[in-house]
Structures are given as C-alpha cells and as structure tokens.
C-alpha cells in the first residue's frame, strides 16, 4: 500500500487513525512510547493471571461466605468476588502507572517506598492488628494492610541497587550490608510471626547474590548458615516447630490444625479429577478453611480440574522464563538484578503456595499471587508487577549485543 493510500485509509477510519497516532511506530505521546517499549507478552501473562484469579475467587466465594456467616449476619455468596473485582479495578492503574515510570524514577520510587514500609514493618508488632494469633496487619479505618506485602518488591529493588555497585567496585561491602538488612527484616517478620515471608526475603536475597556473581565459597557459607537458621527456628521458634511437626507427624484425630488444612486442601484439589466438577459444582470446598486465600489453588482443582491447575503453574513458569530470557543481553547491572529478583519473588511465592496445597510442604499462610483474594495484596502485587514491567522495558528499535547497543531503525 502506498503512503497516499495508507493516509486515505486512516482518514476513512478515525478510530484507527487515533490508535495509530497514539501507539504506532511514530507515536511520541507517553502512552505511545509506553506501548512501544513495554514487554507486551509479560503484560499479557499478568492480565491472564488476574483474570483467572477473578474466576477462582468467584468459585471460592460461596464457601468462604458460608464459613464467615454467623447467626443473623449472612454474607452474600458472591460478596468476596465483587470485592475482589473492585480491588482489581483499583490495582490495574497502579500497575500501568508504575510501569510507565522511567527506570531511574522507578528506582527512586522503590528506594523511598522501601524505607517507609520498613519502618511500618518494624512498627507492626507494636501497633498491628492481631488476626488468628498473628500480628501482621496495620489497621487503617475499616480495613487493614500488610506492610510486608508492599515491602517485598520495594526491598528487592533496593537490594538490587546496593548489589549493583559491586559491578563498579568488587571490594564494596555490599554482601554484609544487604545481609544485615535482610536479617533485620527476617527478625521483625519472625516476631509477627510470619515464617513464610521470611523464607521469601531470604531466598530472593540469596538468588540476587548468585546473579551478582558472589563467590561459591561465600554462597556455600551462606547456605550452611541458612540450614543452621532453619534448625534454630525449629528449636527456638514455636510456630516453625509446630508447623513442621504437624506436617511430618500428623495427628489423624486433630481438627483445624495445619495438618488438617493441608490434608483437606489435597482432598479438595484432587476431588475434581482432570477436568473438575464444573463452575459451582464443588462441594468439598465448603470444608476447607481459607478457601479464598491460602487454599484457593485447591478450589481451582476441584471445580476446574488438574488441567486448570497445570495451566496456572505454567503461566507462572512462563512469567519467570520470559523475564530471564529478556534479561539475557541486559547490560545494566541494576536492571538485571531488580527484574530478576522481582520475577523470582513471584515465582517462588507461587511455588510455595502450590506446594502447600498439594501437600508437599507445611502450611505457611502464603497466598497465590494474583489468584488469591486480598485487597492490599492485589495492590502490592500490581505495584511489584509495574516495577517489573518498568525494568524490562526496551526500545524495540535498539539492538543489543555483547559489543554494545545500536540503532535498528
């Protein structure tokens, strides 16, 4: 098609002309630049996970409504679905807005946010709201939020920024600095108590050290210290000991223990077989505690089958693989570490949740990213995904290679 014919075609279709002007190759608007640079495959994976999460919450909402209804107070069957839909509407602009930030602005935003939420995390054991024996939330009016959920992506970016200085000077003490900060976060989390989040922070830190090129001798030493920390947690930390004991030595007569929850989750997960009972057909889910949060993966298995569970697992795997493939030729140490850390956080949290639901790991009270119900959690995840999209943005007309970056227009 000639240029004259193309121009005539655009004039004949005003909608197409507006789209071409805002997101086309020659677009110069902020939206056009963002759409040109963003990893659209990564964005699509995130949107698919959110959409599947809404379907999963819709399936779990009736069971949760029945469990939390009492006396004259009857919770509508789809109440949790509508609340989650509202949180998704509020969270999506957060993800898009953060993803539009330049890498430098996103880094500064994350550093400032990490400082704020670290202070809030340290204040949680003192001023937090206690729910089910844990003090992990801070009350704000009629709702609560969990500072550790917001701190995770922000702290990962801050840790990546500190470790990136090693590329300029290998002698800088970046390992002890980041290790001390991670240990501080871990100690505060153990006071809440929140053993699962402690594992996430520690594991991501070790992953970032490996990517940063820390020597194998130091990594072996840290691995030994980590194993010793788990043993110490079992000996001195009641929450860890109870959960490990109930997992390794379950009491078949106990009810509403961690063993009961994981056993029931496994039963719900496999009740639907390969294809599931169909939407609304699940019945065992009504016996499952926290069906809309920690054990929503089991609800998906009952109503939509093991095929749907496998599809969700593959989406998380695709997210992590996509990020690492995109980072293969990344030359900026900070962007490499930040994006890799954020991807590992999402993948590891999903892996732990699935392991608990399938009965191969003890209960940790950890939700499935983008799938489980939760307002502040959805906003925090959208914030982290927005940072991940911001740090993986690329100009498509620049070709990267080991010999530098060149224009490919």
UniProtKB/TrEMBL annotation:
Source taxon at top rank: Bacteria
Transport recorded as keyword: no
Protein name per its UniProtKB record: Probable peptidoglycan glycosyltransferase FtsW
Top-level EC class as recorded in UniProt: transferase
PANTHER family cross-referenced by the UniProt entry: CELL CYCLE PROTEIN (PTHR30474), PEPTIDOGLYCAN GLYCOSYLTRANSFERASE FTSW-RELATED (PTHR30474:SF2)
InterPro entries reported in the protein's UniProt record: FtsW/RodA (IPR001182), Glutelin (IPR000480)
Coiled coil: none
Membrane topology term: Multi-pass membrane protein
Keywords from the named record: Cell shape, Glycosyltransferase, Membrane, Peptidoglycan synthesis, Transferase, Transmembrane, Transmembrane helix
């Amino acid at each position: 098609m000639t240029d004259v014919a193309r121009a005539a075609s655009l004039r004949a279709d005003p909608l197409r002309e507006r789209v071409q002007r805002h997101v086309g190759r020659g677009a110069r608007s902020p939206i056009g630049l963002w759409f040109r640079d963003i990893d659209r495959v990564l964005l699509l994976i995130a949107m698919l996970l959110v959409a599947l999460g809404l379907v999963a919450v819709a399936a779990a909402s009736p069971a949760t409504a029945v469990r939390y209804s009492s006396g004259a107070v009857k919770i509508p069957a789809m109440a949790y679905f509508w609340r989650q839909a509202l949180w998704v509407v509020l969270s999506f602009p957060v993800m898009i807005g953060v993803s539009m930030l330049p890498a430098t602005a996103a880094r500064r935003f994350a550093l400032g946010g990490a400082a704020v939420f670290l202070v809030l995390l340290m204040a949680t054991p003192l001023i937090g709201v206690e729910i089910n024996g844990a003090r992990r939330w801070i009350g704000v009016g009629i709702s609560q939020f969990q500072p550790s959920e917001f701190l995770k992506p922000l702290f990962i970016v801050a840790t990546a920024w500190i470790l990136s200085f090693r590329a300029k000077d290998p002698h800088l003490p970046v390992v002890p600095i980041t290790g001390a900060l991670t240990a501080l976060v871990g100690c505060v989390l153990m006071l809440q108590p929140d053993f699962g989040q402690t594992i996430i922070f520690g594991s991501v830190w070790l992953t970032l050290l490996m990517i940063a090129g820390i020597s194998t001798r130091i990594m072996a030493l840290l691995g030994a210290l980590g194993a010793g920390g788990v043993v110490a947690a079992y000996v001195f930390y009641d929450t860890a000991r109870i959960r490990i004991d109930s997992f390794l030595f379950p009491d078949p007569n106990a009810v509403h223990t961690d063993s009961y929850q994981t056993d029931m989750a496994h039963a719900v997960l496999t009740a639907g077989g390969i294809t599931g009972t169909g939407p609304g057909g699940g019945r065992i889910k009504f016996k499952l505690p926290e069906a809309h949060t920690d054990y929503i993966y089991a609800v998906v298995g009952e109503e939509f089958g093991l095929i749907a569970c496998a599809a969700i697992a593959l989406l998380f795997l695709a997210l992590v693989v996509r990020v690492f493939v995109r980072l293969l030729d990344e030359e900026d140490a900070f962007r490499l570490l930040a994006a890799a850390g954020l991807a590992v956080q999402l993948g590891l949290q999903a892996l732990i949740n699935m392991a608990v639901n399938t009965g191969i790991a003890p209960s940790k009270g950890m939700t499935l990213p983008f799938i489980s119900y939760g307002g502040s959690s959805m906003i925090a995840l959208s914030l982290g995904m927005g940072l991940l999209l911001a740090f993986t943005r690329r100009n498509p007309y620049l070709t990267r290679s080991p010999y530098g970056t060149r224009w490919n227009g």
